[in-house]
Structure to design on (704 residues):
């Protein structure tokens, strides 16, 4: 019953009249109305107040015209639900004052009842679905267990996350125990998001690309596979592991409907690695939206032609940057919407 | 006349009795003798005093038994020579108090006389060659123009260098003018390093992997190509562009003798992309040296078998981390030295 179901059709491999488009972090700081709310309410107040989360989620749908909403929230709410304190310092990133480092820290962590600890997320989903009134689908999301472990152990952001790697290499049993707890929590969390109304989910592995392909399998992908397997019969799942290009074939094999890509891979290379049976999503360099509008149009057109029509969702290769002018974001979205592929036959690209 | 010429033979594609090994940042903080000098002399005193630079350069040759020395220096000395102030704050990274942002800043920058501005580097090379007494080859190096531009514009380190990208996308003419000045300076600098005695050079593009493949060509590779072309008939050149795996075939075509790899690519994939006519170098995850020694041996053996013998130099995928125990670094080097490939025929791997 969703009026604009381009995204869902594309994830299912069905033909569509044009390529759908949305932007990671589309509900965020580049929007003046978001900044107004940011000045009034702190980060976790915005996340934990369903009316605010809903308002923020809808802003890019109303103002930029994207083809999907994605719930305004944060991947770290799962760590809070598991018993850890998470602070978010504006413009600085997350801080966990008591990170996990040794086995004894397990006493502070639990696989929580998600209804009890994350009820505000499900309430925000129900409210957003009501406000969206079936205009576009709503995407739910969670952080990948590996990315959550990065923050859980490191206690803050890092360029290379050497601390959590060292933790995994010296205390692998503890690392795997935590990763399984994160996985179990995430499955319950996403299942409840689906029950509350999300139409698709995306799993964000922001730091998967810091691992070698073998370590990515060991510390990240095997857990994401469990999550995708548990969810894939309920809603289509998109797996986005930034930088983990070397494992694209293995990601496809998890059973996900879509694979997200960063900007460091050519569309043709990605399609060759992924095969024809999965939808690809991405992958403009977010910094490219700082270019003048004619340049943006040129770059987006090149990207669209590179991926070709069908089984493709236009997006950025990572979250939109805070300093992007609103009309540049709109130019990105409008270029996708107005794009005409050269061959009409190509437009109708059936499921493979 | 160099006694241990494994590295040079391998770069030329000649057969060797075993795989050569060295480590990026092998002269550095993980060595107690380095830390002693660090406590006495600040960073640029260590870099600019030939006797100190020589002493530090030799430490890993004497203490770890690597098959090559690499001059202790810093890529940012080129920016100093071009007229910019560079501060290096211990454990924090570089800071340029007056970064380049607008065309008017060009008046502060020059293509310098390298003899005059970087004479201490050439003096350190001559002294190191004397002290090495032909035991192992000496590698000279420089930063890639793109990576130097990152610091020149951003004024400090960054996770994503969005500032310099935005600079390139909004002021491309100025960016290209600066990149050409950096290229001209680097060519003169490396030519003088060769005249002073280095046996090979490595070009470090630490931030090339932050660019899309097309932008990598436009803002990085076309300038590295000029440098390699200018140098390749003098000494073998190794090109290391961290994260720029998507452009491996294009890097090979620059005429470099070797391509450095980070740990996010499987050896087999890298060889397939690079073809047989180039030496590959890398690529253990530096964080893997935090593992217990038996694990290190296992991982290094897997890497060696993945690359196979011939046209391969064992190394890390990035610089060694400061907290690595010395015996772990030695375990890395010794595992390479003691490795026996399964088939004897494979050991003799002639130039292709």
């Amino acid at each position: 019953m969703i009026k604009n179901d381009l995204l869902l059709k594309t994830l299912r491999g069905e033909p569509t009249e044009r390529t759908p488009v949305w932007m990671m972090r589309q509900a965020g700081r580049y929007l003046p109305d978001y900044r107004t709310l940011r000045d009034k309410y702190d980060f976790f107040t915005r996340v934990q107040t369903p009316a605010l989360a809903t308002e923020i989620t809808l802003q890019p749908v109303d103002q930029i015209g994207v083809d999907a909403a994605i719930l305004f929230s944060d991947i770290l709410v799962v760590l809070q639900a598991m018993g850890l304190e998470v602070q978010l310092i504006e413009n600085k990133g997350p801080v966990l004052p008591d990170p996990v480092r040794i086995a004894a820290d397990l006493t502070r962590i639990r696989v929580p009842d998600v209804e009890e600890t994350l009820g505000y997320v499900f309430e925000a989903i129900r409210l957003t679905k009501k406000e969206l009134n079936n205009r576009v689908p709503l995407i739910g999301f969670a952080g990948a267990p590996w990315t959550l472990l990065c923050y859980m152990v490191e206690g803050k952001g890092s360029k290379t996350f050497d601390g959590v790697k060292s933790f995994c290499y010296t205390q692998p049993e503890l690392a795997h125990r935590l990763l399984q707890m994160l996985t179990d929590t995430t499955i319950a969390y996403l299942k409840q998001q689906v029950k509350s109304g999300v139409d698709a989910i995306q799993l964000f592995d922001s730091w998967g690309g810091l691992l070698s392909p073998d370590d990515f399998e060991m510390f990240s992908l095997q857990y994401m596979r469990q999550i995708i397997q548990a969810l894939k019969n309920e809603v289509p799942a998109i797996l986005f592991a930034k930088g983990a290009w070397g494992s694209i074939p293995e990601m496809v094999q998890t059973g996900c409907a879509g694979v997200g890509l960063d900007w460091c891979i050519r569309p043709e290379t990605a399609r060759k690695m992924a095969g024809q049976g999965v939808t690809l999503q991405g992958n403009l360099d977010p910094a490219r939206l700082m270019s003048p509008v004619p340049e943006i149009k040129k770059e987006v057109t090149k990207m669209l032609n590179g991926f070709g029509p069908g089984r493709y969702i236009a997006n950025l290769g990572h979250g939109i940057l805070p300093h992007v002018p609103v009309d540049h974001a709109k130019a990105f979205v409008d270029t996708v919407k107005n794009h005409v592929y050269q061959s009409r036959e190509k437009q109708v690209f059936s499921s493979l």
Q: What stands out?
A: Residues 344-352 of chain B have pLDDT under 50 and may be disordered.
